[in-house]
Structure formats: structure tokens, C-alpha cells
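Let's see one such:

===
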Amino acid sequence: MSFLHSLRRKAQQRAAYRRTVHELRTLPVDVALDLDIYHGDAEKIARRAVYGI
């Protein structure tokens, strides 16, 4: 894997992470509660979804 390919993949992952965090934080409270999502856990959920950690 080339350096540029790796760099591009990491940038795409970071963008996906930021989008996911934003979407989770902007969920209406009633929807978030229905999905058992606490807005404070947005980073943890996004990290797991994007990076698999």
C-alpha cells in the first residue's frame, strides 16, 4: 500500500468519523432515546463504527 493511498484512506475515515459524530449529536432526543443512544457517547459509537475499535 502506497503512502498516498494510506493517507487518503485515513482522511476518508476521519471524514466519516466526523460525519457520524455530527449525525449522532444532532439526533432529536426522542429518536436518540428510542435507539438507546446517549449524546455523550457519540464519539465512542462513531469510533467503533468507523475504525472498528
